[in-house]
Design goal:
Elements lengths: L1 H24 L3 E8 L6 H21 L1 E3 L2 E11 L4 H13 L4 E4 L3 H14 L3 E3 L15 E3 L4 H13 L6 E6 L3 H16 L3 E7 L8 H8 L5 E5 L2 H13 L5 E4 L8 H4 L9 E5 L7 H16 L7 H18 L4 H9 L3 E3 L2 E3 L12 E7 L2 E8 L1
Parallel strand pairs: 1-3, 1-4, 4-5, 5-6, 7-8, 7-9, 9-10, 10-11
Antiparallel strand pairs: 2-3, 11-14, 12-13, 14-15
Helix pairs in contact: 2-11, 3-4, 5-6, 11-12
């Protein structure tokens, strides 16, 4: 009996030691969270974003990255916020509870801003690839960064373009009452009036509306030269379609939310070159174009679809987080966070460095128009 107990004890100890040895040899896992709207009206943009993150993660794992003296494995934890602030904070808390090492997201300003406090409280670095509302980086959080220009630059540039290049005198402004839509519309309005335009009509909708007949009829009566919409393509496209149906011939403008490859389809196609002008909160020029084109080619090969909008910025944001970890030689958020602020990274979207607020330095904008179903670049503005 004693021999049996001894033998059993020996087996238990051997198994325990074997288990300990296995754990010691396991590859450390570094978790990167991503949040975007994978359901709802702008799911095509949220999926595009997550694809950018997936592409970066897969390439990093294929390359092999060493942190803290060990080769690590990166794992993507993707969450859906549906573009809703409440769902966004729930997704953020879920990632915090999962002990992610860093977060890329959210897509919308309206979800990024409330989620940023949750990440800040947990000390987890957050880089948004697309949130442009100025408030996002003006809350005093040390964990908050973005890789695109903000609405002050975006809306202001479009406002000046409306009165300058487009010769707009009578201007109508509509926004969807979201943090993004309202923010970019207000900055556009300020710049347009400061540069000589008259706001002939100020209208509001929401991010789920499909019928704009009443506000467009009111706008038509003012005979506008330019109509600016602050919101996303899921609303902006149908609005443009209804403008055409009502015979409104004004130029149509918007920020990066409508500046997508999906806009012509959502608007019913047949867009006339120069009639729609929008701006993407980012942009490459010169030698940087080759890197962006290569990214788009690799993206299509991997996912069999074209880039919608922000995927390259998500891709760069993931790589910025990982580069900071490598420089700090640690994936511990408390240890590598200071390195994020010191970033000087050459990405596919251009050179990335942050100011003291977490905003990208020397952020670019790219102005686009549409010719038929094709998006065409007008200029890169800094």
């Amino acid at each position: 009996m004693k021999r049996s107990l001894f033998a059993l004890s020996a087996v238990v100890i051997a198994v325990a030691l074997a288990g300990c040895g296995k754990k010691a040899d396991e590859t450390p896992v570094v978790k990167i969270g991503h949040v975007g709207p994978k359901s709802g009206a702008i799911a095509h943009l949220g999926i595009d974003n997550e694809n950018g993150a997936r592409m970066a993660i897969d390439e990093l794992n294929a390359k092999g990255v060493t942190i803290g003296g060990k080769k690590v494995k990166f794992e993507l934890l993707g969450e859906d916020d549906a573009g809703d602030p409440k769902q966004g904070t729930a997704a953020a808390q879920k990632l915090v509870d999962a002990k992610v090492n860093g977060v890329v997201g959210h897509l919308n300003s309206g979800t990024s801003i409330p989620a940023s406090k949750i990440y800040s409280d947990a000390g987890i670095p957050q880089i948004s690839p697309s949130a442009t509302n100025p408030t996002f980086t003006r809350q005093g959080f040390k964990t908050t960064f973005r890789v695109v220009a903000d609405d002050v630059h975006l809306g202001g540039t479009l406002g000046r373009y409306a009165t300058g290049e487009l010769k707009g005198k009578q201007i109508a402004v509509i926004d969807d009452r979201t943090a993004y839509g309202q923010g970019v519309a207000e900055e556009f309005l300020k710049a347009a009036t400061a540069s000589g335009g008259t706001i002939a009509s100020r209208q509001f909708t929401n991010d789920k509306e499909k019928d704009f007949s009443s506000i467009l009829t009111a706008i038509k009566a003012t005979k506008p030269d330019v109509i600016f919409f602050g919101g996303m393509d899921a609303v902006g496209g149908p609005m443009l379609r209804q403008m055409k149906q009502l015979g409104i011939e004004a130029k149509y403008m918007g920020g990066d939310g409508i500046c997508t490859g999906e806009l012509p389809n959502l608007a019913g196609g047949g867009l006339v070159k120069g009639n729609v002008v929008c701006a993407e909160a980012g942009g490459v020029e010169g030698e940087q174009k080759a890197g962006m084109e290569d990214f788009k080619k690799r993206y299509k090969e991997k996912f069999n679809i074209d880039v919608k909008l922000y995927a390259p910025y998500v891709y760069d944001a993931v790589n910025v987080l990982v580069e900071a970890m490598v420089r700090a030689d640690s994936a511990d958020p408390a240890k590598y966070l200071p390195e994020v602020g010191k970033t000087n990274y050459k990405g596919v979207t251009g050179q990335i460095a942050f100011d003291e607020k977490g905003d990208i330095k020397n952020g670019a904008l790219t102005l686009f128009t549409f010719d038929g179903d094709k998006r065409e670049q007008i200029a890169v503005v800094r």
